[in-house]
Amino acid sequence: MSVIEEESVRGGVFKDINAEDEDVQPTVIESLCMNCYKNGSTRLMLTKIPFFKEIIISSFACPHCNWNNTEIQSAGRIQEQGVIYTLQVKSKEDINREVVKADSASTRIPELDFEIPAFTQKGSLSTIEGLMDRAVAGLEQDQVIRKTTDPSVAGKIEEFVHRLKKLKEGEEEFTLIIDDPSGNSFIENPFAPQKDKCLSVTNYKRTSEQNASLGIEEEEEQEDEKPNNDLDTMRNEVLVFNTSCPECNAPANTNMKLVQIPHFKEVIIMATNCDSCGSRTNEVKPGGATEELGTRITLHLTDPSDMSRDLLKSETCSVSIPELEFELGMAALGGKFTTVEGLLKDIKDLIVSKNPFMCGDSVSADRADKFKLFGQKIDKIMAGEMDVHIILDDPAGNSYLQNIYAPDPDPEMKIEKYTRTFEHNEDLGLNDMKTEGYAET
Questions:
Q1: Smaller CB count within 10 Å for the chain: N or C?
Q2: Helix axes 365-382, 340-348, angle to 10 degrees
Q3: In terms of DSSP bridges, do strands 39-48 and 15-16 run parallel, antiparallel, or are they unpaired?
Q4: Residues 103 and 119 sit within 8 Å (Cβ to Cβ)
């Protein structure tokens, strides 16, 4: 039990809110002003709200810079459950209801699509009118600057503030919702102990995210704990590990996640972002074993919408476009999870933009024209102006092209399974791999 709670039990520390009671005197403490760093005074009052609980009201004032601040804190502990107060504001009397809003509470007015998120304001003891005045003051704070820098935004905010003021004056009915995971917020019921027809109070169990925001650590039973390498846990988490940037060798982070591709298999997607040089790379690895058969996927590009098909190109997959007499070897571009358009852009960049033979003294006019023409043809393909076929040939069977008609066959896509040759197995390192009887001597 806290010191405040002990004093409360002994009797008389917490007083009911009563404007006519002149005997209640606040405690005055000399405090440092965080605005001018001179001494001001903080007034503390231990107050008991009828039909609710005890709170601490603190008010700071500095006589040197005239800065002041008022806030409330709950004198009790965080409640077992969160609470949602929903009030139908129908009259001017409802506007004058007392409200305790903890700093962990969010406030919403659905009719205006307006929300004050949690932890953006200090806790306050006020009325609904005071709560709305505080919101109006926050919105109008930088209006003078906005009218100069961004008049359109300033106009919209001014219009919104006007609607908020109309609600405050009681000209329209509206709904006020206060959602507090700590359970320490409150809206007055003037009919207590009878039921208030306009006010509904709902208690709920907090989520783990809400407990974390309140600084509450959940007790986890050892029996329910799972090992860190559990496959189900890995599917639902993004793993982060330290690495070095491939461009500038600076320390960077690589994010890795297991992803299930519909109608295909699981793959591992890795992405590296470097804060030093801005380099961004991504790589895809197959999540399963090498397939027994190779896969050859042929897609006839007949419509610009084909550009948005998802595409997985593994490291062992080669790409060819017969109409352009173009073939990209399996080692080029690495593993990628992208779209058909993304793959074509990468091919264009590799052949045209990043080609070392396209710059300097080594480039001839004839070769430059050929590369430029190739880039123009790629642009036409992406724009849907050129009828071509794109072929993904993966001996390991770990590449994928989205079938937009799934689970039905795609009339524009042909998938062939074939038996790998000795050369294919040699390139994949399968000829020297012994998976049965390897322990025998």
A1: C
A2: 170
A3: parallel
A4: yes
Closest CA to 289 of 266, 269, 306, 308: 266
Stated length of the chain: 441
Neighbours of 100 (CB within 10 A): 24
What are the structure tokens assigned to 50, written together?
Answer: 């009828």
User: How do beta strands 266-273 and 251-260 pair?
Assistant: antiparallel
- Written as six digits, the tokens of 47 are 């107050």
Separation CA 225–CA 165 (nearest Å)? 52
What string of DSSP letters covers 243-256? Answer: EE-TTT--EEEEEE
- Residue 273's H or E segment, with its range, is strand 266-273
- Burial status of residue 286 (CB atoms within 10 A of its CB: 0-12, 13-18, 19 or more): buried
If phi over 0 gives left and psi between -120 and 50 gives alpha, with beta otherwise, what is residue 114?
beta
- Cα separation, 360 vs 74, in Å, equals 72
Q: Please, are residues 24 and 45 in contact by the beta-carbon 8 Å criterion?
A: yes
**Closest listed residue to residue 323, CA positions, set 378, 274, 398:** 378
The model's pTM: 0.43
Distance CA 435, CA 290 (A): 13
Nearest to 280 by CA among 270, 293, 294: 270
How would you class 434 by CB atoms within 10 Å of its CB: exposed for 0-12, middle for 13-18, buried for 19 or more? exposed
CA angle 363, 364, 369 (to 5 degrees): 100
- Specify whether the CB–CB gap between 51 and 192 falls below 8 A: yes
Q: Which residue has the tokens 């039921």?
A: 195
Sole residue written with tokens 């704990």: 225
pLDDT 10s digit of each residue in the chain, 441 long? 343 444 443 344 444 444 344 455 678 888 888 888 888 988 877 776 554 556 677 888 899 998 887 776 655 577 888 999 999 999 888 999 988 888 889 999 999 888 988 888 877 778 899 888 888 888 888 888 888 888 888 898 899 989 888 888 888 899 999 999 988 888 988 887 788 889 999 999 998 888 888 887 654 433 444 445 555 666 677 888 888 887 888 888 888 887 776 666 677 888 888 888 888 877 777 666 677 889 999 999 988 889 999 888 888 889 999 999 888 887 778 778 889 999 999 888 888 776 655 655 556 677 778 888 888 999 999 988 899 999 999 998 888 898 888 778 889 999 999 998 888 888 877 877 766 666 664
